[in-house]
Amino acid sequence: MGKTFNILAAALLASLAHSQAGAATVVNFASNGYFESVTNCTGGSPGCSISPDKNVLKMSGATWPGNQPSTLTITDITSPAITTSQTSLLGSITWVNLATYNTDQDFNVKYWFSLKFTSPNDVADSQLFKLEIKQPTNPTPDFVFDISNTTLKKLGPFKLDGVSISNIHFEEVGDGEYNGSTWKNPEGKTSTLNIMADFTFDTAPPVPEPSTWAMMILGFGGVGFMAYRRKRSGHALTAA
């Protein structure tokens, strides 16, 4: 009888632990960035253009030899499952600033960034950046204006079950400089602005689902009944 009791109790505890592990929060997201609407890029040769997938902005002018322009390239992120508190990459823009000719330009382009969560909730938001890009005559560094952390932080708020998303911001990696709103990159250098965010998971244990509560009640009832029968059996043997 004691062996059966122990097996039943162990099975109940294992079932409860499995339920709590299965209820852990999992975050999945995808980002999407793109360029559109180049304006005021009129003096350089060749001029500015956006790739068909809208992820690459080719700036005015080209190298000699090679005929390659400076570029801004967007990288989107589709996240693996995030299950613990961490700082994660949401997307990035990489600026390859070549030493080009015919580039004395001050033009504008729109940059959209959107973020969509599919787990634990379906929620999405996007922000528009109206960028001003200045390409002075070599060898002066070039600039991207109005790529602002203030605008980026307007994303959301994202209300997810069991996790909060905060401190969404640009972070420069490479040869350039970024002061929160203006991005500077010297001639012949490569600079990347990463979009980062803090994922903070709740520390409270998961609440069992109704089916788990029912299993717990039945299990404890069974354990209690076995204990009762064991006690009754002991009394009967004593009386005999």
Q: What is the percentage of strand-forming residues?
A: 35-45%
Work out the helix count: 3
Order the strands across the largest sheet as they lie in space.
Answer: 2-3-4-5-13-10-9
Q: What is the count of β-strands?
A: 13
Shape, per Cα inertia axes:
elongated
Secondary structure: helix percent: 10-25%
CA-CA gap between termini? 19 Å
The residue ranges in which pLDDT falls below 50 over 5 or more consecutive positions are 16-22
Question: Helices and strands: which structural class?
Answer: alpha+beta
Rg, alpha carbons:
30 Å
Work out the oligomeric state of the chains in this entry: single chain
**Mean pLDDT over the full residue set:** 84
Summarize the helix and strand pattern as letters: HEEEEEEEEHEEEEEH
Largest sheet: 7 strands, antiparallel
Short description:
The chain has 240 residues and is an alpha+beta fold. Helix content is 23%, strand content 41%. The chain is elongated.
